[in-house]
């Protein structure tokens, strides 16, 4: 080992000493004469890397020597020998450097230190390798061969040279056994493994059945048809590999600026008086106040000179002597030498005596401002006087503005009325029947559009001859009266859809000069002979004409790319056409069409001069002139793959240079009036046809209100099963329930609420007044009050047995404010009550708004059944009455209260209680209805007792009255009771003889259409109690305060009604009149859904009752229960059975008058829901039924014609349905008006 290290060190010194010598070789080139261990191979590899770096330096020196030797002469042989030796050495070192550079990384990567070998070579192979290395001499082997031999010997040969003894150097290394059998050897490198994985990932394709998608392509269709005729165009466009997906270099025309070669009249087209300024926005009205905002054009005026500052004589300001006036020669003075001598004599007299002037130093001499002003060249000595008329315009504007303040008309209308026009000087043009001749129209009398492409199908104008029609594409033939769509047998779906869309757009918009076409004539190979003959006749053919064979399937993509590459787009700049690089040789985008530009677009057979609406007039005229000259000039497409004028002709036969054809199109277009042929050239032009269809669909949705007409009835099962919960007042995140106690099931806590005190203030716009304890229980319907409530909340738990726990926690003292607003209180009083609540709130407690009739149970509990609501105002003088009548309200005794009502026997309810007081005698009659439940009677007893305890001044008792409670039962009233009603008996709707039980609570739902659904919202009483039935839960105001026309469903146990509102007329107060045709139609759809909901509810309710009776029966047998037949009632004409479901019912004469005026319903009428629903679902009416007023229910007033039979439709409108609906909307309206169907 020591000998090898010494040899290695000696070799290193030798290498360092002979870097520049020819005979010195790197260590890697010296054959090993002794075995190298793996630890020494690392050192050897590092030495080899250092030798490679030194070889790089040698190579650079060799390059320098070679360059010097090449410049010297080679006459002498010695010089030639040296040169040869130096060249040989340089080439060897260069090749050694390249091979070392290529194999250095491989030497390290394939070394045994950096990878584990899976197999070892046989001894015979090792001996052969060793012999081959030793036999090869350095002179006969190349550097690459030596490196390969050294690498192989270093990796595997060292094993054969090591003495085999018992010592195992690799005892800690376990080699992987070689696989036995025919199994594949596992890859040893990461690249091999990745390659194996990639190969395996593609093997699944061989196990999957081949897809049959190719059977539905154009290529398969053409193969089935055996079309063997293939044009040579595609062969010339194919890439060398023939693959349509390989990219080819796009060949487009060279971008050159086009200028007028003939000169023409381009300079004369430019208006010198108006430089290239953008066109102003056009305004229709010239008499509106906005005229002053527009910039006036530079008018011509007179030139005015500015007086000079140094003009002392003001000669410039006053009139000058004309230049034409000159002195005569006789008047001119004569001068001689004596005159000049006289001047020199007299000049001394003019000399001023010299003065000594003291010069002020260190002061800069001031400049003469007049001289400085005269020396300025930027100041003009004259200006052009321009009269703008600003004063007149301002006066006119002020006049119109003054008139608009006292007028309801718009400013534009007033300006039009104030303008003065001399119509006598207006000469109208004579109407001529001859057609208008358009300059450079964008269409001709006969056009053949060729649609070809696969990605973005191109629509190009081709010569209208039969030879241009082939079976592989679609064509659209356009004449002034007909539109033909030829469908090629082998055209792809993109071409087919594009051609159909273009033809349909031309038909609908009357585009491309089409005036009287009514339908699109579709032509195929299997069309009738007469239709095809007419098509071929327009193209110069006959009945036997046929389309040319289709090209190969890949032809569409190549022709499309070649056509797009030939596009040329110019912009008019000054007097030339400048190419647009962003749109040259590609499909242009709509963003290039700026409103202030003028463009020229050349598509071969079509050339368009497009002008924006704000483009300069000079640019427009120059664009037209240059566009015409470009069209008349010979075209040159020699740099393109195709001639766009004859796209289907092979390049070898096509003329790439020549003049434009006569059938071509040189057109002038303006912004927003482009043709469909022009729009199809752009890649991102909005799809107007799709937008039009969307607008039409949206219009139909708005007209017919599709979501409403598809309204589904409400879920009757949900309505029947969902029961309102107990009322719960939540203040400061604490549940107070009914104001007495509340049990929290989640936390298993019982909250007890105790009232410490409460105060009541009577508030008005004049202030607030604190009421006494005796009078605070009496509120008035026309006033507002503020109530301050002091309360405590005590929390107690439950024992395991469910009983209240003895341990409780009492919280802090709390405060809440209620501001109660009476039914008849004014808006100002309601606002004052809210403000006073904030002012009185010293503790910053929560505020609760309480409306009369919707009081929460916690509020009613404050009065302990003693709350009495009187009619009128508290401060006003009350009229003296003999009788007062109160309705008993409330579910529990502590929540009971009395509400004063008019003394009328119609307010008696068999399910309720009424308190009637005689103020003269003091007798309090407590009337109990025949069907009143025990809970209702207990509430009546409690409230009556509180009434008797009330102060005399609050009720109005006379001093001589003796208070006494007298109970009256329905059907057994005393005579003095009926005296309050004038002695009349039985003037109310009584349930005395009714055998049904009334231990249930009536339920009412508000049915309304919200967005695209029909919903039912139950109206529940604010102080409802789930433990006891509520006989009269809802007030009449719930129905009449809703937005009309409204729909309600009322379930009164044994009867079910659908209440229908009314249409407010223009004279109704507070209601918006909206009885339009669409509103009536939507309401009819809602009625239909409401009636169907009522039918479903009654049927489901009968089934539920049958199941309940079966469960209660002993034998558990099913019992059949007949379903209730729901009935319809209308507002203003409700029957007594319906009005008695409500505690108080006040007739509405105004609503009754509206219903009587309509003449559709009878007073007190009830109509079966089945009959009304059948009438609403009727789809056929006679002409006589549709012409009478009012119209039948459920009829769409905007489309009465749809209810006629086909025979009556033709008889009434004079045409069938297809012809009628093909007309414009305004024409349909005129025809319906004549037939009295509008």
UniProtKB/TrEMBL annotation:
Segments forming domain HP: 1175-1238
Name of the protein: HP domain-containing protein
InterPro entries: ADF-H/Gelsolin-like_dom_sf, Villin/Gelsolin, Villin_headpiece, Villin_headpiece_dom_sf
Region (Disordered): 1-26, 58-140, 154-185, 239-309
GO biological process terms held by the UniProt record: actin filament severing; actin polymerization or depolymerization; barbed-end actin filament capping
Biased composition (Polar residues): 262-290
GO molecular function, one term: actin filament binding
Pfam families: VHP
Biased composition regions of type Basic and acidic residues, renumbered to the chain: 1-17, 154-168
Example of a GO cellular component annotation carried by this entry: cytoplasm
PROSITE patterns the UniProt entry points to: HP
Entry-linked SMART domains: GEL, VHP
Biased composition (Low complexity): 67-100
């Amino acid at each position: 080992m020591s000998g090898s290290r010494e040899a290695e060190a000696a070799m290193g010194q030798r290498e360092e000493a002979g870097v520049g010598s020819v005979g010195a070789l790197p260590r890697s080139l010296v054959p090993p004469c002794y075995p190298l261990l793996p630890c020494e191979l690392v050192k050897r590899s590092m030495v080899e890397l250092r030798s490679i770096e030194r070889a790089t330096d040698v190579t650079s020196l060799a390059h320098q020597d070679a360059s010097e030797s090449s410049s010297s002469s080679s006459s002498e042989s010695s010089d030639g020998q040296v040169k040869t030796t130096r060249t040989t050495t340089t080439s060897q070192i260069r090749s050694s450097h390249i091979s070392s550079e290529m194999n250095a990384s491989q030497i390290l990567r394939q070394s045994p230190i950096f990878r584990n070998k899976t197999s070892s070579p046989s001894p015979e192979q090792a001996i052969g390798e060793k012999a081959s290395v030793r036999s090869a001499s350095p002179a006969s082997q190349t550097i690459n061969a030596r490196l390969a031999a050294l690498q192989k010997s270093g990796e595997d040969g060292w094993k054969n040279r090591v003495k085999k003894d018992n010592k195992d150097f690799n005892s800690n290394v376990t080699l992987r056994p070689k696989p036995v059998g025919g199994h594949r050897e596992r890859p040893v490198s990461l690249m091999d493994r990745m390659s194996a994985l990639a190969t395996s990932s593609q093997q699944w394709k061989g196990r999957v059945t081949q897809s049959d998608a190719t059977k539905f392509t154009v290529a398969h269709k053409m193969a089935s048809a055996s079309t063997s005729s293939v044009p040579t165009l595609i062969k010339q466009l194919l890439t060398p590999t023939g693959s349509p997906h390989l990219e080819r270099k796009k060949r487009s025309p060279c971008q050159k600026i086009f200028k007028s070669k003939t000169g023409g009249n381009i300079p004369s087209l430019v208006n010198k008086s108006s430089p290239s300024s953008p066109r102003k926005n056009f305004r229709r009205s010239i008499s509106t106040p906005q005229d002053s905002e527009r910039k006036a054009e530079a008018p011509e005026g007179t030139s005015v000179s500015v007086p000079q500052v140094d003009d002392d004589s003001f000669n410039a300001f006053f009139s000058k002597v004309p230049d034409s006036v000159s002195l005569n020669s006789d008047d001119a003075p004569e001068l001689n030498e004596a005159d000049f001598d006289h001047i020199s004599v007299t000049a001394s007299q003019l000399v001023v005596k010299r003065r000594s002037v003291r010069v002020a130093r260190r002061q800069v001499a001031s400049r003469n401002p007049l001289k400085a002003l005269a020396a300025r060249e930027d100041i003009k000595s004259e200006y052009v006087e321009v009269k703008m008329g600003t004063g007149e315009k301002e006066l006119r504007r002020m006049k119109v503005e003054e008139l608009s303040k006292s007028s309801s008309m718009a400013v534009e209308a007033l300006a039009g009325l104030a303008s003065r026009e001399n119509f006598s000087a207006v000469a109208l043009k004579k109407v001529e029947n001859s057609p208008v001749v358009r300059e450079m129209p964008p269409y001709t009398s006969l056009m053949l559009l060729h649609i070809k492409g696969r990605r973005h199908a191109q629509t190009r104008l081709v010569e209208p001859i039969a030879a241009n029609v082939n079976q592989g594409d679609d064509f659209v033939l356009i004449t002034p009266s007909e539109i033909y769509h030829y469908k090629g047998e082998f055209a792809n779906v993109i071409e087919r859809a594009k051609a159909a869309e273009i033809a349909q757009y031309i038909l609908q918009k009357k585009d491309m000069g089409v005036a009287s076409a009514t339908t699109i004539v579709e032509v195929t190979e299997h069309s009738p002979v007469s239709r095809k003959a007419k098509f071929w006749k327009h193209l110069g053919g006959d009945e036997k004409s046929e389309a040319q064979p289709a090209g190969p399937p890949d032809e569409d993509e190549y022709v499309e790319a070649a056509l797009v590459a030939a596009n040329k787009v110019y912009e008019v700049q000054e007097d030339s056409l400048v190419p647009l690089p962003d749109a040259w040789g590609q499909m242009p985008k709509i963003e290039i069409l700026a409103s202030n530009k003028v463009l020229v677009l050349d598509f071969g057979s079509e050339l368009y001069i497009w002008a924006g609406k704000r483009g300069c007039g000079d640019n427009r005229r120059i664009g037209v002139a240059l566009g015409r000259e470009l069209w008349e000039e010979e075209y040159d497409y020699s740099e393109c793959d195709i001639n766009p004028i004859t796209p289907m002709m092979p390049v070898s036969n096509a003329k790439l240079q020549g003049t434009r054809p006569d059938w071509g199109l040189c057109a002038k277009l303006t912004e927003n009036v482009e043709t469909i042929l022009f729009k199809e050239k752009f890649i991102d032009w909005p799809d107007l046809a799709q937008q039009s269809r969307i607008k039409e669909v949206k219009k139909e949705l708005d007209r017919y209100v599709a979501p409403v007409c598809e309204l589904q009835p409400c879920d009757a099962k949900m309505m029947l099963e969902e029961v309102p919960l107990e009322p719960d007042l939540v203040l400061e995140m604490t549940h107070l329930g009914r104001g007495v106690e509340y049990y929290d099931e989640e936390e298993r806590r019982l909250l007890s609420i105790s009232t410490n005190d409460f105060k009541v203030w009577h508030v008005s716009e004049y202030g607030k007044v604190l009421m006494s304890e005796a009078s605070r229980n009496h509120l008035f319907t026309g006033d507002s009050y503020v109530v301050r409530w002091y309360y405590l909340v005590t929390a107690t738990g439950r024992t395991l047995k469910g009983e209240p726990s003895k341990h409780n926690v009492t919280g802090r003292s709390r405060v809440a404010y209620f501001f109660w607003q009476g039914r008849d209180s004014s808006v100002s009083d309601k606002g004052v009550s809210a403000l006073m609540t904030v002012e009185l709130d010293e503790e910053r407690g929560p505020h609760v708004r309480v409306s009369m009739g919707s009081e929460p149970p916690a509020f009613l509990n404050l009065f302990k059944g003693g709350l009495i609501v009187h009619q009128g105002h508290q401060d006003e003088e009350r009229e003296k009455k003999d009788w007062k009548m109160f309705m008993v309200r409330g579910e529990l005794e502590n929540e009971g209260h009395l509400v004063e009502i008019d003394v009328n026997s119609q307010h008696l309810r068999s399910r309720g209680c009424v308190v009637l007081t005689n103020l003269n005698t003091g007798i309090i009659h407590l009337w109990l209805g025949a069907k009143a439940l025990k809970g209702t009677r207990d509430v009546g007893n409690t409230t009556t007792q509180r009434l008797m305890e009330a102060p005399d001044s609050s009720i109005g008792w006379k001093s001589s009255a003796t208070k006494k409670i007298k109970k009256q039962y329905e059907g057994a009233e005393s005579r003095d009771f009926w005296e309050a009603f004038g002695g009349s008996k039985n003037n109310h709707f009584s349930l005395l003889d009714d055998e049904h039980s009334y231990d249930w609570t009536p339920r009412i739902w508000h049915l309304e259409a919200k967005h695209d659904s029909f919903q039912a919202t139950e109206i529940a009483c604010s102080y409802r109690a789930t433990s006891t039935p509520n006989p009269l839960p809802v007030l009449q105001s719930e129905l009449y305060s809703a937005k009309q026309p409204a729909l309600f469903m009322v379930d009164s146990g044994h009867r079910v009604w659908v209440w229908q509102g009314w249409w407010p007329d223009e004279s109704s107060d507070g209601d918006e009149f909206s009885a339009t045709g669409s509103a009536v139609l939507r309401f009819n759809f809602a009625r239909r859904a409401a009636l169907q909901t009522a039918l479903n509810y009654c049927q489901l309710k009968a089934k539920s009752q049958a199941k309940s009776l079966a469960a209660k029966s002993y034998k558990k047998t099913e019992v059949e229960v007949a379903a209730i037949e729901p009935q319809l009632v209308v507002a203003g004409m409700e029957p007594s059975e319906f009005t008695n479901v409500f505690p108080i019912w006040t007739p509405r004469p105004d609503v009754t008058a509206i219903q009587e005026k309509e003449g559709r319903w009878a007073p007190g009428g009830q109509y079966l829901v089945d009959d009304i629903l059948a009438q609403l679902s009727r789809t056929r009416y006679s002409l006589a039924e549709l012409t009478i007023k009012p119209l039948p229910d459920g009829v769409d007033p905007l489309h009465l014609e749809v209810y006629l039979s086909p025979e009556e439709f033709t008889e009434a409108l004079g045409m069938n349905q297809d012809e009628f609906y093909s007309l414009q909307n305004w024409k349909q309206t005129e025809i319906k008006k004549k037939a009295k169907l509008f």
